[in-house]
């Protein structure tokens, strides 16, 4: 463990190398990854959550191993009522340092100007993501002062995630994925062992969770077809973008 901690210290310099940091985290357990990242990076860290179907796992790990890490929740204004209820339940149970961020443009104003952007193909969905998710997350990182962003992405969730490393550079921000290598069975076991509540829509055929207008229950076992009518899976926060407004 001491040698691994030295590796983390070396990789976590102000000019940190994502490849070196990823290699240092790779052999550790998820809780150890979180503890060492917090010990070495402290207030440079921020986590994000969607309060989706599996969000309780990362939030519980943070609660157990690095409870001082602030957790950002992007409220698009279009989430399922059940997601807001789940947010309240988990926040209370885990005593999270939750920071809620919303778009600067209201849902009513956005729809009055451009209609239902999510119905206008990939370009519309991308613009919607920029307004409701990317801009608020940019603002959160800037106001909190963090430059290392923790997320609960896992390789097994989609084809867009299978080649990710434990740490990578995304524009100006370093991103780290403590449970990247967890399989679905490991997630289910963690829920059971720790008595974590499930999202209220988990029993209704949903396997991913986003906004009500662009998320649907799974059909024929194809999880990637459940978001944005199958046109894309990622909401925009976890993919690089060529737009000048995308800074995170």
Structure explained in plain terms:
- This protein is α/β, with parallel strands linked by helices and 248 residues long.
- It has a single domain, classed as 3-Layer(aba) Sandwich (Rossmann fold), CATH 3.40.50.
- It contains eight helices and six strands, in the order αααβαβαβααβββα.
- The C terminus is likely disordered.
Name of the CATH homologous superfamily: HUPs
Structural class: alpha/beta
Placed side by side, the strands forming the largest sheet appear as: 3-2-1-4-6-5
CATH hierarchy: architecture: 3-Layer(aba) Sandwich
Average pLDDT level: 85
List segments where confidence is low: pLDDT < 50 over at least 5 consecutive residues.
Answer: 239-247
Strand content: 5-15%
The helix/strand series, from N terminus to C terminus, equals HHHEHEHEHHEEEH
Shape: globular
End-to-end distance, in Å?
32 Å
CATH class: Alpha Beta
Biggest sheet, in brief?
Answer: 6 strands, mixed
CATH topology name = Rossmann fold
Total individual domains: 1
Helix % is 25-40%
Enumerate how many helices there are, as a single number: 8
Radius of gyration: 18 Å
Total number of strands: 6
Features:
6 strands; single chain; 248 residues; alpha/beta; 8 helices; globular
Helix and strand layout, with pairings?
Layout: H1 2-11, H2 18-25, H3 30-41, E1 45-49, H4 55-65, E2 71-74, H5 81-94, E3 98-101, H6 107-114, H7 121-144, E4 148-150, E5 167-170, E6 173-176, H8 184-194
Parallel strand pairs: 1-2, 1-4, 2-3, 4-6
Antiparallel strand pairs: 5-6
């Amino acid at each position: 463990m001491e040698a691994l901690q030295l590796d983390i210290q070396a990789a976590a310099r102000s000019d940190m190398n994502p490849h070196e940091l990823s290699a240092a985290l790779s052999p550790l357990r998820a809780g150890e990854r979180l503890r060492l990242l917090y010990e070495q990076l402290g207030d440079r860290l921020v986590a994000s959550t969607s309060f989706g179907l599996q969000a309780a796992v990362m939030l519980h790990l943070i609660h157990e191993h690095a409870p001082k890490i602030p957790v950002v929740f992007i409220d698009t204004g279009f989430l399922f009522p059940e997601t807001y209820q789940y947010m309240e339940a988990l926040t209370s149970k885990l005593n999270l340092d939750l920071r809620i961020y919303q778009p600067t443009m209201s849902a009513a104003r956005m729809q009055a100007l451009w209609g239902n952007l999510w119905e206008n193909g990939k370009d519309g969905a991308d613009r919607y993501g920029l307004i409701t998710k990317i801009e608020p997350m940019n603002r959160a990182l800037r106001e909190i002062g963090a430059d290392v962003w923790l997320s609960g992405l896992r390789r097994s969730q989609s084809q867009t995630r299978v080649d990710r490393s434990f740490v990578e550079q995304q524009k100006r921000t370093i991103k780290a994925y403590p449970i990247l290598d967890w399989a679905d069975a490991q997630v289910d076991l963690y829920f059971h062992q720790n008595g974590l509540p499930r999202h209220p829509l988990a029993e209704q055929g949903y396997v991913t969770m986003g906004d009500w207008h662009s998320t649907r229950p799974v059909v024929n076992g194809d999880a990637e077809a459940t978001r944005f009518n199958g046109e894309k899976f990622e909401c925009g926060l976890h993919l690089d973008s060529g737009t000048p407004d995308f800074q995170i």
